[in-house]
Specification:
The chain is of the alpha/beta class. It contains eleven helices and twelve strands. α5 crosses α6, α5 packs across α11 and α10 packs across α11.
Amino acid sequence: MSKRSILHMFDPMPNNSPFDINMALDAGFDVLMPYSNVKLEYINNLTQDVIFSRGPAGVKRTAIFIGGRDMGLAIDMLEACKPAMVPPFQVSVFADPSGSYTTAAALVACVEKSLKEVHGKALHDCKALVFGGTGPVGIATGVIASLQGADTYLVDHLSQDNANDVAKQYNRRFSSHLRGAVARNDEEKAALIADVDLIFCTAKAGIKVLNAAVLAQAKQLKVAGDVNAVPPAGIEGVGLKDFAVPLLHASQATKAVGVGALAIGNVKYKLQQKLLNSLLESETQKFIDFRDAFDWARILV
């Protein structure tokens, strides 16, 4: 009798995400084992309990998923799994805290494709702003864009110091070149977007970050992507299903286009499903984070 597939889901939060549990079941795992309130120092022992209990054949049907809401902690947990492995007792590990890695990867891939198709440009040709840039999706988005060569700013809605601190922290971790910015009101937002090529909106759901009057101040905007599916849109005029659709309130001279939340979400869903499937299908051990997610998003978009 073949062994059942098991996904062990480590989460530092009080509860595991129902979204991730649904996705994992749909990906084909037979058994899901959620663990809440997991601390970094628990990872070594938990991982060794996972690998040594099933034998060399069983570990091929076993994987670990790391959730939570902290991008950096998720990477730390993934890294902590590595030294706990003892060949041939090795399993694959996929980190995607709050879906931030796959959402960010899908967002940047969709914007990148629109940029190339409409404007014939690449990310490294562009200056980018990430609104909601100090949250998990915003940080992952910023790091991905920066590693692809975009001049990228993480925008905080309250504090320049916080934006700078987050940028410095993740630059140290991933050798990116992020910078911080603040936009507390429409006047500051208009000043920031005046000379940008790309806008990524990853702010809290249900909040209009950029209204029509502010967007009209963008003099060289090429693509704006918004992950907010809860009305109102984070960027006014971006439709949920838009993919490289002319941006309603931007200057017509820029030929700016928008990418909406459902268009991004469709890629994100396929991406997370693909990465979860790969944990079962691969014959070799995998450690999957936002960089791997972006590589696959580019293929899927």
